[in-house]
Amino acid sequence: MSARPDTPLLDRVNKPEDLKHLSDAELARLADELRAETISAVSETGGHLGAGLGVVELTVALHAVFDTPKDKLIWDVSHQCYPHKILTGRRDRIRTLRMKDGLSGFTKRSESVFDPFGAAHSSTSISAALGFSVARDLGGQCDGGLGDAIAVIGDGSISAGMAYEAMNNAGHLGKRLFVILNDNDMSIAPPVGAMSSYLSRLYAGEPFQELKAAAKGAVSLLPEPFREGAKRAKDMLKGMTVGGTLFEALGFSYLGPIDGHDMEQLLPVLRTVQERATGPMLLHVVTQKGKGYGPAEAARDKGHATAKFDVPTGKQQKAPSNAPSYTSVFGQTLTEMAAEDDKIVAVTAAMPDGTGLNLFAERYPSRCFDVAIAEQHGVTFCAGLAAGGMKPFCTMYSTFLQRGYDQVVHDVAIQRLPVRFAIDRAGLVGADGATHAGSFDIAYMANLPGMVVMAAADEAELKHMVATAVAHDEGPIAFRYPRGEGVGVELPERGEVLEIGKGRMIQEGKRVALLSFGTRLEEVRKAAEALAAKGITPTIADARFAKPLDRDMILSLAANHEALITIEEGAVGGFGSHVAQLLAEEGVFDGGLKYRSMVLPDIFIDQASPRDMYEVAAMNAEQIETKVLDTLSIAQIGNKSA
């Protein structure tokens, strides 16, 4: 473990109120200590490092100037909130970040009154801040009181349509609120698109230096763009800023860009807007992701998400991999198939590395599209590509695809367009917790007419499903796979095209049939081994498809066993519900079949290791074994055979 940093000033801060007693010079020193403490903590826990390092000075300045928790500080996405958590009474627990029973890696309402709005997905902060502002003016009440609302949103997050919907509404309502555009020119992937280019132009020229000179220590030199009739001041603002007209057209007073790492700029500017703003205010702050820590600054992703690491070197302590990750198998397979089929294109929403498309993008840059944080647009863009004769792979995390669901229904499914949905991070994901868990895609995809829904049981099956999706032109098709490593099976040289709606038998047995959908198959096999020691040999089948179901296989399993148990890594309403519907309609239950469905419980499961999360969900091998014994009404007496 690296030595803990020396933090004499930070040691005196237990809550934001303590910052009010520090001089500006002390606040600048405090920021340095806060950065060191953040690096030290994340080196022990792993997590999102770069984003937090980029907003250290901004975090200190906001808490020093505004009156939190009465003033609502809302961090968009909130993976940059670790310094905020340290300053708001949670320093003693900061080394439990993202661990079981520890601090969340994101803001969380149930964790602290200083987290007024939970987040982990992007572009929600301005909408929430506007909600708080309107609630304040209508006499609403909440924990901590209601004062100003401050949304801190990154240049990547502001590329999403929801941010503009919120700004348009805020400009119309004219309520006092603050939007701080944290412009580090770097979301998870380098931000793309016209918006990013616009922001780059904003701070490319002289005015940045002019504002820097005006802001340094001299509040009186700042313009007053907020007073009715102060035309000269307004003209001065226009001269000092470049092209803030987009934000002004939406009804915001725009100020910036300013240096987000210079406390001599941040503090007077924030104090001025806090004292004088009457309507919606956008402050454009330029920062550097990973600021102040060499290894993060040098990394391609600026230390976006790291494992535990050595502080002096930045070397991450990643466990050696025994098998390729599902994500890499997908990316490699799609790239191989694209070599043979020039109609294959790939679309992702700001996650080319996270979805394994970086290899595809290198090989076929003209056929890989990063649409920025815009899942709705991404899905309909894929629909247009499919209608135009291409074979688009809409590659998104399960939890992010939720944001484009209306488009999946309206633009893809109703028109029966052959969009291929590659759904990464299916099931429970570990340290990111409930916000990133892929719990609902089986249910929300399988209830759509004409949608084919597959789940890979292992990495070889994933290769087959990619090949199946390439070959499927009759309508939309989806396949899901989890985060992390495969199970270590041998990979075929080529994926084979599966027969749509046909599962596979894994093991013949008696009395009970275990019908698995997805990667719980490995746990089902372990449970079967334990049951064999008790004299029970279950039949095991891999469904492969939740839609269309393999009717013949399912009805055969039901006819030849006294019990049938389905297992899936998804919420109720998914695969097991479709199986139950089939069995009910076919009158199978009339004959006395014992049917059980193992699904994720009706709760949001907090972060822990994936195994611990599946323990909470009661879906590991031990619980599958128990479910079989209970269903067959076999009492368990210690470890004795039944």
3D architecture notes:
Pathway: Metabolic intermediate biosynthesis; 1-deoxy-D-xylulose 5-phosphate biosynthesis; 1-deoxy-D-xylulose 5-phosphate from D-glyceraldehyde 3-phosphate and pyruvate: step 1/1. Belongs to the transketolase family. DXPS subfamily. Pfam families: DXP_synthase_N, Transket_pyr, Transketolase_C. InterPro entries: Dxylulose-5-P_synthase (IPR005477), THDP-binding (IPR029061), Transketo_C/PFOR_II (IPR009014), Transketolase-like_Pyr-bd (IPR005475), Transketolase_BS (IPR020826), Transketolase_C (IPR033248), Transketolase_CS (IPR049557). Mg(2+) binds at residues 155, 184. There is one protein chain. The chain is of the alpha/beta class and 642 residues long. It is built from 24 helices and 17 strands. Strands 7-6-8-9-11-10-15 form a seven-stranded mixed β-sheet, sandwiched between helices. Strands 1-2-3-5-4 form a five-stranded parallel β-sheet, with helices on both faces. The protein has a five-stranded mixed β-sheet with strand order 12-14-13-16-17, with helices on both faces. Helix 1 packs across helix 3, helix 1 crosses helix 4 (82-90) and helix 15 (375-387) runs parallel beside helix 17 (405-413). It is globular and about 80 Å long. The chain starts with 23 loop residues before the first helix and ends in an 11-residue tail after the last helix. Mean pLDDT is 89; it is low at 205-242 and 637-642.
